[in-house]
Amino acid sequence: MPIRPKKLCTYPGCNILVDGSKSRCAVHKTEHNKYKKNKNEWATWYSTTRWRKARQQYLALHPLCVECLKDNRLITADVVDHIVDHKGNHELFWDMNNWQALCIKHHNSKTARTNLNK
């Protein structure tokens, strides 16, 4: 059976080589698993009927991406983003003053920056 070549850990900025069948080095796999465990506790909030209705109503009232508007571009918002990461805080999760409408591009960019800073 052929051996897969080593590749870089998929954690942003990590330069450690891992076996071809793995995606992260030992350090970042542990960090990722901690994040996933904590995330799973509140990730179900996004699949509730209450959230789906709140999201739909918010996007109806705020149909354009706030970041695109800053550049005078009219792009439809796809995501209700939490401005300050709620990290499982139920009150912060439901605080509409902590919400903003973003397009996928800006939401993914913000999420990537946030994950780099962890």
Summed up, what is this model?
The chain is mostly helical. The chain has five helices and four strands, in the order E-E-H-H-H-E-H-E-H.
Q: How would you explain this protein's 3D organization?
A:
This protein is mainly alpha-helical. It has 2 domains: 1-46, no CATH class; 48-118, no CATH class. The protein contains 5 helices and 4 strands, in the order ββαααβαβα. β1 (7-8) and β2 (17-18) form a beta hairpin.
How are the strands of the biggest sheet laid out side by side? 1-2
Tally the structural domains: 2
Helix content percent band? 40-55%
- The number of helical elements comes to 5
Gap from first CA to last CA? 38 Å
Over all CA atoms, what is the radius of gyration?
18 Å
Mean pLDDT: 86
Q: Largest sheet at a glance?
A: 2 strands, antiparallel
How many runs of DSSP E, i.e. beta strands?
4
Percentage of β-strand residues: 5-15%
List the helices and strands and how they pair.
Blueprint: E1 7-8, E2 17-18, H1 26-43, H2 49-61, H3 66-70, E3 79-82, H4 90-94, E4 99-102, H5 104-116
Task: Record keyword descriptors for this entry.
two-stranded antiparallel ribbon; mainly alpha; 118 residues; 2 domains; 10% strand; 5 helices; elongated
